[in-house]
Design brief:
Largest sheet of chain B: 6 strands, mixed
CATH superfamily of one domain in chain B: P-loop containing nucleotide triphosphate hydrolases
Number of domains of chain A: 1
Oligomer: heterodimer
Number of helices of chain A: 11
Distance between the termini of chain B: 14 Å
Order of helices and strands of chain A: HHHHHHHHHHH
Radius of gyration of chain B: 17 Å
Helix content of chain B: 25-40%
Shape of chain A: globular
Number of strands of chain A: 0
Radius of gyration of chain A: 18 Å
Largest sheet of chain A: none
Number of helices of chain B: 7
Helix content of chain A: over 70%
CATH topology of one domain in chain B: Rossmann fold
CATH architecture of one domain in chain B: 3-Layer(aba) Sandwich
Bound molecules: adenosine-5'-triphosphate, magnesium ion
Structural class of chain B: alpha/beta
Order of helices and strands of chain B: HEEEHEEEHHHEHEHEE
Strand content of chain A: under 5%
Distance between the termini of chain A: 12 Å
Number of strands of chain B: 10
Amino acid sequence: MKSQNKLAFLSIGLLLFYLILAKNYLFGKFTIQNLFRGVDFGANTMQTLVFIFFFFTIATLNFALLQSWFSDWLILQLIRYKKISHAFKNLNETIFKLNVLFHIMFIILFFVFSELFHASSSISFSLLSMLLTNFLICNLYMLTQFLFNLYFSDRVGYFLVLVYAGLFLMVGESLFVNGGSVIFQILAWPQFICQQRLSILHVNLLVWYVILLVLFMLVEGLIYGRLRQIDWLRRD
Amino acid sequence: MDDLDKLIGYGGIKMKIELRHFSKTLKKRSVLTDVSYTFNDGAIYGLYGINGSGKTMLLRAMAGLIHATNGEVLVNDKILHKDIDFSPETGILIENMSLLPQYSAFENLKILGKIQHVANDADIENTLKAVGLEANIHEPVVKDFSLGMRQKLNIAQAVFEDQKIILLDEPTNGLDTDSVSKCIKLLRKLRDEGKLIVVATHVAEDMKKLADVQLHIVEGKIESTERVSVG
Ligand SMILES: Nc1ncnc2c1ncn2[C@@H]1O[C@H](COP(=O)(O)OP(=O)(O)OP(=O)(O)O)[C@@H](O)[C@H]1O
Ligand SMILES: [Mg+2]
């Protein structure tokens, strides 16, 4: 359970990292208002990212949670599920529940802050498409983390997640500020959390829903395959 | 306990674990080498051997927690990882494991019990009493347990759902003399109920008191087996 504490600590660290980013690079001044300033057509990449930083935090905390599953506790559960497919189903249910929780939080915070700062007029979100998108991405992100867990040890896995997040922050920014090809922008997926960004790009929303769904299924397939052949030995 | 009772209690199902030429190589080192043996229910099997001889690995193989490099494990004639993923109805005590630290003993078992729904509150309480945790059923939380208390809870976890196959790795670790006797008494009772029990230990004394069949493990092989009769 020690490593869990470490990871929770790292998650908070990551959150602070985002706050500092916000302070230094985004709005010049560090105010709550700036942090939650709506993402409209004029928002740049960093503003978009900061707007969705909850998502990163939740996903990271979730990583810590998944990490703790790789303890003896998980083995005791697996033995009781008897079949890997049951455990797999349970994993997906848990991620699903976390998603719902996150989205409720997201919507509430969104409305609270837009009310608070009278920003609603300047924001024009399609909530439904945003949520659908978020849902796919959230699942994909959490499952990717789970994959990391399955293939690597704690430390390597967490390092990869940090690199992953950092890389997409950088790639996302450079591509968006300087333009760039659509495929790169899809790879730097945090950009696509807001439907607005997509409509600016004139990318058919359906097309990349399908792309994400295919990716989603691919990751699920990999996890299932890996779960079936993994040696449940104590990890370092 | 007569045979009729056994049949009623089990619906006539006998438990059997069969290792067929099981080998496991980890990081290019052979940790189990061509192990073939059949474990039947109604007996306590004792695995003994020096540190690193492969006792834990053998238990893991029987539970379906590792994959064979060569050979196979059959549980009731079903091949592990092919016909089934894990041995069914198995209780396992993994070395140095820790249950959820923020919950009490009772809550821990209750959470685990939610997966299969075979044990009720009374079963949980009775098991905790049988392992000697009667004073610590609802408090303190596991975080504040002593080493021996943790171990008792770990044993309870492996038997509270009336598991037919019980695999215990060093169950007497951290237990005082009284608790060891209690543990032995519990395991004998379970054996008499017709369960398949395998215990790994390097304590010769516990082995003598406990095992009906002693398996001597040397460098990942079963070097010798000896059937002894104990109480
Ligand atoms: N994850 C692993 N990777 C590589 N080798 C391992 C791993 N786990 C165990 N081993 C090796 O497998 C061998 C058998 O280990 P095992 O844990 O089964 O020993 P043991 O008989 O249970 O010993 P002890 O009495 O100390 O518990 C040891 O030589 C050990 O070094
Ligand atoms: Mg061992």
